[in-house]
Write a structure and sequence with these properties.
Layout: E1 8-14, H1 22-32, E2 37-43, H2 49-58, E3 61-66, E4 80-81, H3 83-88, E5 93-97, E6 100-104, H4 107-119, E7 127-131, H5 135-146, E8 151-155, H6 159-172, E9 179-182, H7 187-192, E10 196-199, E11 224-227, H8 236-244, E12 247-249, H9 252-267, H10 273-283
Parallel strand pairs: 1-2, 1-3, 4-6, 7-8, 7-10, 8-9, 10-11, 11-12
Antiparallel strand pairs: 3-5, 5-6
Helix pairs in contact: 1-9, 1-10, 4-5, 4-9, 9-10
The chain binds NADP nicotinamide-adenine-dinucleotide phosphate (NAP).
NADP nicotinamide-adenine-dinucleotide phosphate binds next to helix 4, helix 5 and helix 9.
Length: 284
């Protein structure tokens, strides 16, 4: 890599970042496309976010990603937020053009692309059961709603958060089919009524790889079971679902597809998705 005065800077803002695969994935993509770009992990403490954004504005940055815990807070520093990220209420990708910072959210699109690639099915008209009501659940559920799913059950340990997310889906997306909130102990019937189940909680994530958010007996072979958790590559939930005979969608391709969307927003070039997928898979 030949870094010089022309090198365009990109990065990831968040805290902590030790586990992040994004720098490796994006630098692979830049190399693959022979772009004079570099992507840096930038760990930022909450009290320094303002100063870091001001610094980025004065440097040769053309864009950056944002991760936990700044996906919502970043919005107040941006000049523009695209309508879709506004509806979601969170930003994970920022472009910088002529000093203008514009926010986008590519997480949900990443999920849809990975779902369609893995299953060959479209999401439209399906009934979906989502576990979780945090950042990932928010991006995925808004994207599903925009893509005209028939029904979205939002099931969360903290019921109030499931209720808040369901209300905002029903209020903000005019064409949204009914979103229904529920607590963990009401899930049996809703799962039976669903075509797709998506784990958007962190249950099952390394190091707690022996945990699943769902009792295996609640799964049935007609369900497509998806997990956004990507470490381990195959979670306990995905292994249980495979044993029952369900179609499955693992989490790491979503990471590569959301990254590919960001790459295209920054460079206006087609992302080398295969290289990005390979880079992430190799690491895992
Ligand atoms: P988050 O905003 O912190 O939300 C965490 C969610 O998990 C909440 O709904 C929380 O419920 C639930 N939860 C956590 N521990 C739980 C437990 N022990 N029992 C029941 N529920 C529990 O996190 P996030 O950003 O949504 O991320 C969630 C997962 O998605 C992480 O593993 C992350 O790595 C993964 N992710 C993957 C991708 C990808 O590209 N594949 C993208 C984004 C995120 P409460 O509301 O009750 O606390």
């Amino acid at each position: 890599m030949n870094i010089n005065i022309e090198t365009k800077l990109f990065g990831l803002l968040g805290y902590p970042l030790a586990q992040s695969l994004s720098p490796m994935m994006h630098n692979t993509a830049f190399l693959e496309c022979k772009l004079n770009n570099i992507y840096l992990p930038i760990e930022v403490l909450p009290e320094n976010l303002n100063a870091v954004i001001n610094g980025i504005k004065k440097m040769n940055f053309n864009g950056f990603n944002v991760t936990i815990p700044y996906k919502v807070e970043i919005m107040k520093y941006l000049d523009e937020v695209d309508a879709y990220a506004k509806a979601i209420g969170a930003v994970n990708t920022v472009t910088i053009n002529n000093g203008i910072l514009k926010g986008y959210n590519t997480d949900g699109i990443g999920f849809i692309k990975s779902f369609e690639e893995s299953t060959g099915h479209k999401i439209e008209n399906k009934k979906v059961f989502i576990l979780g009501a945090g950042g990932a659940a928010r991006s995925v559920s808004f994207t599903l709603a925009i893509q005209k799913t028939k029904k979205i059950y939002i099931c969360n340990r903290t019921f109030e958060k499931a209720e808040e997310l369901s209300n905002s889906l029903n209020n903000r997306i005019s064409e949204c089919s009914l979103a229904v909130p529920m607590s963990f102990n009401e899930m049996r019937e809703a799962i039976c009524d669903s075509d797709i189940l998506i784990n958007c909680t962190s249950i099952g994530m390394y190091p707690n790889i022996e945990l699943s958010p769902i009792d295996k007996r609640l799964l049935n072979k007609d369900l497509i079971v998806c997990d956004v958790v990507y470490n381990p590559k195959k979670t306990k939930l995905i292994c249980d679902a495979e044993e029952i005979g369900c179609g499955t969608v693992i989490g790491f391709p979503m990471l590569a597809y959301q990254g590919a969307e960001a790459f295209e927003l920054w460079t206006k070039k087609k992302a080398p998705v295969k290289a990005m997928l390979n880079a992430v898979e190799k690491w895992l």
